[in-house]
Design brief:
With 473 residues, the chain is mainly alpha-helical. The protein folds into two domains: 405 residues, Growth Hormone, Chain: A, CATH 1.20.1250; 44 residues, no CATH class. The protein is built from 20 helices and no strands. Helix 10 runs antiparallel to helix 15. The protein is globular. This is MFS general substrate transporter.
């Protein structure tokens, strides 16, 4: 089954339920960045030591994502979601004894387990939303779903500003254990909901058949030659590392700007940065309905690079203003890189999804690198994420150039599958009129031309048979 075959009711139900997973991911991620600063105060550790949380959380993506993609390839999306939610709840529940015994190592270990659960959910949810409908709107669809991750990610810092840094809680872990008990409960409730739901399975074979029916055979090449996906992993690694580094030290950056802002207010401003990020994501949904995703990502990448430099050198409130702008332009980057990297992968879809999600592992090593500089100069440390934005921009510009070479420069978003289908229909004889020999010959020559153009160079002999036109035309 493919997304286009679902009824409207089943599509809305599946879309809404899977979108709820992004809220779960965002809530945990939002809390993580504030805990980073809170633990510096409670445990008396340095900025570099506090980024062990990021190392554990995002390192789990690097280690676990390949296994998650293999698991879902064998057992399907629904069982993958159950596995992810189970790991997520287990990691959260063990925050309780870590808080009771005040063991920073325990928090790091629990964060790794939560990261394993969320990496599994990311492989499932990102891939599922991307293929749940027309490829033309995949980037817009994924941005909309991930917008709810943004909603949850600013809820975490707002909770922290209200409870973690107030009064006796400024040097206590009591509230941390209660918050993560609630997080574990949320994971359990979602697990039960998914158990009783009829989630339609979208198979790789169905996706491949849909592509092959119009002559697109990108997946005939082995996975190691799916260069857009492989370079997408590089771009995702660089971008996520930059994004995580920016967020992890936001509270420290705002306080260190010496404009009279303390940690509670800085945490609240961080939540406003996340609101800006979320607004940017929903603005991106509108833009991506018309503008080519690679072209828009190129522009946003340039903007991120520019504002990262400005944050590094601008003093006082002007630097904080540039930080808000940076959060806005980060908004669409992750989902657009994901959809560009997994586009038209056919039978390689789940494996490609696992690889792109594995790129989240960049968040494990960028923050320590940035924090090592921040221990001396927080402002200059933002040159580290600048390097990540440059790498992402090169990837986006490269796709724009590749598209221009192969089919002309694109301003508007398109679906190659839908365009090919329309071309075949235009060249097919009308079913209501008698088929003349000349008309039939033209139609057959056009379909054969498509097959020859898409045939890999190392394939000998006639191309694979294109499915009977009566099933698609």
């Amino acid at each position: 089954m493919v997304g286009a075959e679902l009824s409207r009711g089943r599509w809305v139900y599946a879309f809404a339920l899977v979108t709820s997973l992004f809220f779960t991911w965002g809530f945990a991620y939002g809390l993580l960045d504030v805990l980073n600063s809170h633990f510096q105060q409670v445990f008396g550790i340095s900025k570099v030591q506090s980024t062990l949380l990021q190392l554990a959380y995002f390192g789990a993506y690097l280690v676990w994502s390949p296994f998650a993609s293999v698991f879902m390839d064998r057992y399907g999306y629904k069982k993958g979601i159950h596995l992810g939610l189970t790991l997520y709840s287990l990691g959260a529940i063990f925050f309780w004894p870590s808080a009771v015994f005040e063991k920073y190592g325990g928090f790091v270990g629990c964060t790794f387990v939560i990261g394993c659960g969320l990496s599994t959910l990311e492989v499932a949810a990102n891939s599922y939303i991307s293929v749940l409908g027309s490829p033309k709107y995949a980037a817009a669809r994924l941005n909309f779903s991930q917008g709810f991750q943004g909603v949850a990610s600013f809820a975490g810092p707002m909770i922290a500003s209200r409870w973690f840094f107030r009064g006796k809680n400024a040097n206590s872990l009591d509230t941390v254990q209660w918050v993560y008990l609630a997080v574990a409960g949320l994971g359990l409730v979602l697990n039960i909901m998914f158990f009783f739901c009829d989630l339609p399975e979208i198979t790789q074979d169905a996706l491949a058949e849909e592509m092959h029916a119009v002559g697109i055979r990108n997946d005939d090449e082995p996975f190691r030659k799916q260069y857009r996906c492989i370079f997408g992993w590089v771009a995702q690694t660089a971008y996520v590392g930059a994004q995580v580094g920016v967020a992890a030290l936001t509270v420290n950056y705002i306080v260190d700007q010496n404009v009279g802002i303390d940690k509670p207010l800085a945490s609240q401003l961080f939540s406003y940065c996340q609101i800006t990020f979320t607004v940017g994501r929903f603005v991106g949904v509108i833009l991506l309905n018309w503008i080519d995703p690679a072209l828009l990502l190129s522009f946003y990448g340039l903007a991120c690079s520019t504002f990262a430099l400005a944050v590094s050198f601008a003093p006082g409130k002007s630097g904080i203003g540039c930080l808000f702008a940076l959060f806005f332009f980060e908004s669409i980057c992750y989902p657009v890189i994901f959809t560009l990297g997994t586009k038209n992968l056919g039978k390689h879809t789940k494996r490609g999804s696992g690889l792109i999600v594995m790129g989240v592992g960049g968040g494990a090593w960028y923050p320590p690198a940035q924090a090592s500089i921040a221990d001396h100069n927080t402002r200059r440390s933002y040159l580290v994420p600048f390097s990540g934005y440059i790498a992402m921009t090169i990837y986006a510009v490269g796709i724009v150039i590749d598209q221009a070479i192969k089919g002309g420069f694109r301003w508007h978003t398109i679906s190659e599958i839908e365009e090919r289908r329309e071309e075949i229909e235009d060249h097919a004889p009308s079913p209501e009129s008698p088929v003349l020999d000349d008309e039939k010959k033209v139609s057959e020559e056009f379909v054969e031309q498509i097959r020859v153009e898409e045939r890999p160079a190392n394939v000998q002999g006639p191309s694979l048979y294109l499915r009977d036109s009566s099933a698609h035309l």
